[in-house]
Protein backbone atom coordinates (compact mmCIF):
# COMPACT_ATOMS: atom_id res chain seq x y z
CA UNK A 1 0.00 0.00 0.00
CA UNK A 2 1.28 3.47 -0.80
CA UNK A 3 2.39 5.92 1.88
CA UNK A 4 -0.56 8.20 1.10
CA UNK A 5 -2.92 5.39 2.12
CA UNK A 6 -1.44 4.80 5.56
CA UNK A 7 -3.95 7.03 7.24
CA UNK A 8 -6.84 4.97 5.91
CA UNK A 9 -7.89 2.04 8.11
CA UNK A 10 -5.18 -0.23 9.47
CA UNK A 11 -1.71 1.31 9.54
CA UNK A 12 0.72 -0.11 6.99
CA UNK A 13 3.21 -0.89 9.75
CA UNK A 14 0.59 -3.10 11.40
CA UNK A 15 0.19 -5.02 8.13
CA UNK A 16 3.74 -6.23 8.03
CA UNK A 17 4.91 -6.50 11.62
CA UNK A 18 7.10 -9.52 11.25
CA UNK A 19 6.99 -12.28 13.81
CA UNK A 20 9.46 -15.12 14.19
CA UNK A 21 10.17 -17.01 11.02
CA UNK A 22 8.46 -20.37 11.16
CA UNK A 23 5.35 -22.40 10.61
CA UNK A 24 2.15 -21.08 12.12
CA UNK A 25 -0.17 -23.96 11.32
CA UNK A 26 -1.41 -26.24 14.07
CA UNK A 27 0.20 -29.60 14.49
CA UNK A 28 2.66 -29.23 11.61
CA UNK A 29 6.29 -30.03 12.25
CA UNK A 30 9.30 -31.71 10.71
CA UNK A 31 12.22 -30.67 8.59
CA UNK A 32 10.25 -30.46 5.34
CA UNK A 33 7.68 -28.04 6.74
CA UNK A 34 10.40 -26.04 8.48
CA UNK A 35 12.26 -25.69 5.21
CA UNK A 36 9.14 -24.42 3.48
CA UNK A 37 8.38 -21.99 6.27
CA UNK A 38 11.92 -20.63 6.33
CA UNK A 39 11.26 -18.54 3.24
CA UNK A 40 8.52 -16.55 4.95
CA UNK A 41 7.89 -14.41 7.98
CA UNK A 42 4.36 -14.83 9.28
CA UNK A 43 2.46 -11.51 9.46
CA UNK A 44 1.39 -10.52 12.97
CA UNK A 45 -2.16 -9.76 11.90
CA UNK A 46 -5.36 -11.36 13.15
CA UNK A 47 -8.04 -12.64 10.74
CA UNK A 48 -10.39 -9.82 11.74
CA UNK A 49 -7.67 -7.17 11.32
CA UNK A 50 -6.85 -8.53 7.86
CA UNK A 51 -10.52 -8.39 6.88
CA UNK A 52 -10.79 -4.82 8.18
CA UNK A 53 -7.73 -3.88 6.11
CA UNK A 54 -9.30 -5.28 2.93
CA UNK A 55 -12.54 -3.43 3.61
CA UNK A 56 -10.69 -0.18 4.23
CA UNK A 57 -8.62 -0.67 1.09
CA UNK A 58 -11.70 -1.26 -1.06
CA UNK A 59 -13.35 1.87 0.37
CA UNK A 60 -10.26 3.83 -0.65
CA UNK A 61 -10.30 2.28 -4.14
CA UNK A 62 -13.93 3.31 -4.61
CA UNK A 63 -13.76 6.78 -3.07
CA UNK A 64 -10.21 7.96 -3.81
CA UNK A 65 -8.56 5.70 -6.40
CA UNK A 66 -6.01 8.40 -7.19
CA UNK A 67 -4.40 7.79 -3.78
CA UNK A 68 -3.64 4.16 -4.55
CA UNK A 69 -0.23 4.71 -6.10
CA UNK A 70 2.56 2.32 -5.20
CA UNK A 71 6.33 2.62 -4.93
CA UNK A 72 6.88 -0.77 -6.54
CA UNK A 73 10.65 -0.48 -6.66
CA UNK A 74 10.87 -0.04 -2.89
CA UNK A 75 8.33 -2.80 -2.25
CA UNK A 76 10.11 -5.21 -4.56
CA UNK A 77 13.38 -4.70 -2.72
CA UNK A 78 11.74 -5.05 0.70
CA UNK A 79 10.16 -8.43 -0.04
CA UNK A 80 12.82 -9.97 -2.27
CA UNK A 81 14.13 -12.16 0.54
CA UNK A 82 10.83 -13.29 2.05
CA UNK A 83 7.08 -12.97 1.76
CA UNK A 84 4.47 -12.45 4.46
CA UNK A 85 1.10 -11.90 2.72
CA UNK A 86 -1.62 -10.87 5.16
CA UNK A 87 -4.57 -12.09 3.06
CA UNK A 88 -5.24 -14.81 0.49
CA UNK A 89 -7.67 -14.11 -2.35
CA UNK A 90 -9.30 -16.74 -4.55
CA UNK A 91 -10.61 -14.65 -7.41
CA UNK A 92 -11.83 -14.98 -10.96
CA UNK A 93 -9.35 -14.74 -13.83
CA UNK A 94 -11.51 -11.96 -15.32
CA UNK A 95 -9.21 -9.11 -16.37
CA UNK A 96 -11.53 -6.58 -14.72
CA UNK A 97 -11.04 -8.05 -11.23
CA UNK A 98 -7.43 -7.39 -10.13
CA UNK A 99 -7.33 -8.05 -6.36
CA UNK A 100 -4.24 -5.95 -5.72
CA UNK A 101 -6.03 -2.89 -7.10
CA UNK A 102 -9.59 -3.32 -5.84
CA UNK A 103 -8.36 -3.74 -2.28
CA UNK A 104 -6.68 -0.36 -2.21
CA UNK A 105 -3.60 -0.46 -4.39
CA UNK A 106 -1.70 -3.31 -2.77
CA UNK A 107 1.65 -3.92 -4.40
CA UNK A 108 4.01 -6.87 -4.20
CA UNK A 109 4.22 -9.07 -1.13
CA UNK A 110 0.84 -8.06 0.35
CA UNK A 111 -1.75 -10.49 -1.06
CA UNK A 112 -1.45 -14.19 -1.88
CA UNK A 113 -3.66 -14.61 -4.95
CA UNK A 114 -5.03 -17.67 -6.75
CA UNK A 115 -7.08 -16.91 -9.87
CA UNK A 116 -9.14 -19.02 -12.23
CA UNK A 117 -12.36 -18.64 -14.21
CA UNK A 118 -15.23 -18.71 -11.71
CA UNK A 119 -13.03 -18.43 -8.57
CA UNK A 120 -13.27 -22.19 -8.05
CA UNK A 121 -11.21 -24.54 -5.89
CA UNK A 122 -9.52 -27.49 -7.56
CA UNK A 123 -6.54 -29.44 -6.23
CA UNK A 124 -4.03 -26.82 -7.35
CA UNK A 125 -5.99 -23.97 -5.79
CA UNK A 126 -6.59 -25.88 -2.56
CA UNK A 127 -2.90 -26.62 -2.24
CA UNK A 128 -2.11 -22.99 -2.97
CA UNK A 129 -4.34 -21.60 -0.23
CA UNK A 130 -3.18 -24.29 2.22
CA UNK A 131 0.39 -23.18 1.54
CA UNK A 132 -0.62 -19.56 2.07
CA UNK A 133 -2.29 -20.29 5.40
CA UNK A 134 -0.09 -23.05 6.83
CA UNK A 135 3.34 -22.00 5.59
CA UNK A 136 3.14 -18.26 4.93
CA UNK A 137 0.78 -17.59 7.83
CA UNK A 138 -1.89 -15.69 5.88
CA UNK A 139 -4.74 -15.27 8.40
CA UNK A 140 -7.57 -14.64 5.93
CA UNK A 141 -8.96 -16.33 2.81
CA UNK A 142 -11.49 -14.46 0.68
CA UNK A 143 -13.40 -16.28 -2.06
CA UNK A 144 -14.08 -13.33 -4.34
CA UNK A 145 -16.87 -13.63 -6.90
CA UNK A 146 -17.92 -10.78 -9.17
CA UNK A 147 -20.98 -9.55 -11.03
CA UNK A 148 -21.58 -10.55 -14.66
CA UNK A 149 -19.15 -13.46 -14.42
CA UNK A 150 -18.75 -15.30 -17.72
CA UNK A 151 -18.01 -18.67 -16.12
CA UNK A 152 -21.08 -18.38 -13.91
CA UNK A 153 -23.24 -17.32 -16.86
CA UNK A 154 -22.05 -20.39 -18.74
CA UNK A 155 -23.17 -22.59 -15.84
CA UNK A 156 -26.52 -20.81 -15.70
CA UNK A 157 -26.99 -21.44 -19.43
CA UNK A 158 -26.34 -25.14 -18.87
CA UNK A 159 -29.15 -25.18 -16.32
CA UNK A 160 -31.65 -23.11 -18.29
CA UNK A 161 -30.73 -23.84 -21.92
CA UNK A 162 -28.87 -27.16 -21.75
CA UNK A 163 -25.86 -25.35 -23.23
CA UNK A 164 -22.67 -27.24 -24.04
CA UNK A 165 -19.10 -25.96 -24.34
CA UNK A 166 -15.96 -27.17 -26.11
CA UNK A 167 -12.72 -28.40 -24.61
CA UNK A 168 -12.28 -28.23 -20.85
CA UNK A 169 -14.77 -25.38 -20.36
CA UNK A 170 -17.69 -27.70 -19.61
CA UNK A 171 -15.91 -29.73 -16.91
CA UNK A 172 -14.44 -26.53 -15.48
CA UNK A 173 -17.84 -24.98 -14.74
CA UNK A 174 -19.44 -28.16 -13.35
CA UNK A 175 -18.79 -27.14 -9.71
CA UNK A 176 -20.96 -24.04 -10.30
CA UNK A 177 -24.01 -26.02 -11.47
CA UNK A 178 -25.38 -26.85 -7.98
CA UNK A 179 -25.38 -23.14 -7.11
CA UNK A 180 -27.17 -22.32 -10.37
CA UNK A 181 -29.81 -24.97 -9.71
CA UNK A 182 -30.29 -23.70 -6.15
CA UNK A 183 -30.79 -20.06 -7.18
CA UNK A 184 -32.70 -20.55 -10.42
CA UNK A 185 -36.07 -19.57 -8.95
CA UNK A 186 -34.81 -16.72 -6.75
CA UNK A 187 -35.77 -13.12 -7.43
CA UNK A 188 -33.09 -10.86 -8.84
CA UNK A 189 -30.26 -11.40 -11.29
CA UNK A 190 -29.79 -15.13 -11.90
CA UNK A 191 -26.09 -14.89 -12.76
CA UNK A 192 -25.17 -12.67 -9.81
CA UNK A 193 -27.26 -14.74 -7.39
CA UNK A 194 -25.47 -17.85 -8.61
CA UNK A 195 -22.07 -16.17 -8.28
CA UNK A 196 -22.80 -15.34 -4.64
CA UNK A 197 -24.15 -18.80 -3.88
CA UNK A 198 -21.19 -20.49 -5.55
CA UNK A 199 -18.72 -18.39 -3.52
CA UNK A 200 -20.62 -19.21 -0.32
CA UNK A 201 -20.52 -22.92 -1.10
CA UNK A 202 -16.82 -22.74 -1.93
CA UNK A 203 -16.12 -21.35 1.54
CA UNK A 204 -17.87 -24.37 3.03
CA UNK A 205 -15.96 -26.79 0.80
CA UNK A 206 -12.61 -25.31 1.77
CA UNK A 207 -13.06 -26.06 5.45
CA UNK A 208 -14.72 -29.42 4.78
CA UNK A 209 -12.03 -30.69 2.41
CA UNK A 210 -8.92 -29.46 4.23
CA UNK A 211 -7.94 -30.48 7.74
CA UNK A 212 -5.16 -27.89 7.62
CA UNK A 213 -7.63 -25.06 7.05
CA UNK A 214 -10.22 -26.49 9.44
CA UNK A 215 -7.67 -26.73 12.26
CA UNK A 216 -6.43 -23.19 11.71
CA UNK A 217 -9.99 -21.89 11.58
CA UNK A 218 -10.92 -23.76 14.75
CA UNK A 219 -7.95 -22.24 16.56
CA UNK A 220 -8.96 -18.72 15.55
CA UNK A 221 -5.86 -18.26 13.39
CA UNK A 222 -7.72 -18.23 10.07
CA UNK A 223 -10.98 -16.84 8.75
CA UNK A 224 -12.55 -17.85 5.42
CA UNK A 225 -15.18 -15.54 3.93
CA UNK A 226 -17.07 -15.05 0.66
CA UNK A 227 -17.49 -11.75 -1.14
CA UNK A 228 -18.67 -10.35 -4.47
CA UNK A 229 -17.14 -7.47 -6.43
CA UNK A 230 -19.40 -5.16 -8.42
CA UNK A 231 -17.82 -4.44 -11.80
CA UNK A 232 -19.68 -1.14 -12.18
CA UNK A 233 -19.29 0.41 -8.72
CA UNK A 234 -16.03 -1.20 -7.59
CA UNK A 235 -17.59 -2.13 -4.25
CA UNK A 236 -16.79 -5.45 -2.56
CA UNK A 237 -19.73 -6.81 -0.55
CA UNK A 238 -19.19 -9.62 1.93
CA UNK A 239 -21.61 -12.54 1.84
CA UNK A 240 -23.00 -14.07 5.01
Automatic annotation (TrEMBL):
Cofactor(s) this protein cannot do without: Zn(2+)
How many cofactor units bind, and how? Answer: Binds 1 zinc ion per subunit.
- One of its Pfam families is Pro_CA
Note the superkingdom of the native organism. Bacteria
Binding-site positions, Zn(2+): 92, 94, 146, 149
Family per similarity comment: Belongs to the beta-class carbonic anhydrase family.
Q: What is this protein called?
A: carbonic anhydrase
Amino acid sequence: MCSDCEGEGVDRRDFLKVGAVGLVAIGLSGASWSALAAESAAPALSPDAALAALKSGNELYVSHPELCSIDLAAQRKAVAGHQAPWATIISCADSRVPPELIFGGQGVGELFVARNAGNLVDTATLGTVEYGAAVLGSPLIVVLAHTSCGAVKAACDVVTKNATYPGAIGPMIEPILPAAIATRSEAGDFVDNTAKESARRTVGRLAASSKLLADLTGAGKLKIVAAIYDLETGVVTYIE
